[in-house]
Amino acid sequence: xxxxxxxxxxxxxxxxxxxxxxxxxxxxxxxxxxxxxxxxxxxxxxxxxxxxxxxxxxxxxxxxxxxxxxxxxxxxxxxxxxxxxxxxxxxxxxxxxxxxxxxxxxxxxxxxxxxxxxxxxxxxxxxxxxxxxxxxxxxxxxxxxxxxxxxxxxxxxxxxxxxxxxxxxxxxxxxxxxxxxxxxxxxxxxxxxxxxxxxxxxxxxxxxxxxxxxxxxxxxxxxxxxxxxxxxxxxxxxxxxxxxxxxxxxxxxxxxxxxxxxxxxxxxxxxxxxxxxxxxxxxxxxxxxxxxxxxxxxxxxxxxx
Length: 305
Known about the structure:
Elements: E1 6-11, H1 19-22, H2 35-55, E2 59-64, E3 81-83, E4 88-91, H3 105-114, E5 119-122, H4 135-138, E6 140-142, E7 147-151, H5 158-167, E8 171-175, H6 188-191, E9 192-194, E10 198-201, H7 209-221, E11 225-228, H8 231-235, E12 242-245, E13 251-256, H9 257-262, H10 265-272, E14 276-280, H11 283-289, E15 298-300
Parallel strand pairs: 1-2, 4-5, 7-8, 10-11, 13-14
Antiparallel strand pairs: 1-15, 3-4, 6-7, 9-10, 12-13
């Protein structure tokens, strides 16, 4: 399981509650506060997270969001952009029409200037067909084993997932994950977080026993020890972590403070066997837009020029 040593983050310019995404993201909460207040709070959380990452020698590329058009979810670039160790840059089709403006050519051009980009795949054309695949939100990818784990939702088209996997020579493992009310969980990276030698997995969310058995067997067969979390911990975004490698070669597991606080002592001990735990407080971003720190980081696997 390769770990990124560079991540890309987008500093928000118009953060706010997105009604278009709230239709199937049941982790979102409308705070009823002004857009200006939300923007300032989210900006403070972003800047604190950025500084915390840099204090731990994690290389971060920061992109400034543009104010127009307003993009309330711009802070989550991993949904439209991903890269691979083979040198691919991939752009994905987005469910919410007002999120499609997040896709910016200038960001792609900046990556091409700084890194070796062998090819760019843009899957955006499938938006007009109502087929969506929201990057490493929809897919938890093991690049070494060429496996994609994905849970069924309106954000993740199964035919498009299969086409994407086939095109890039990956195997797709599909399952249904539900929240406490029986609704499909909108993104796979809320249910599971895969690291080097481990996988945090909300087993309670996978109710079909045969699907859970299949997911567990595949993870274990590829050398991943499973660290189960509960649905309650999933709501605290304990499944929305990302392991990265810092400039000193250390493995760092980035998670929100809410996720960290939800973990039991023995779970933390298990995780600490693999990486240093780095909690960051992003309560407003989590509550208002229903995503956490993993969603805020797009991994850059590309080789530097």
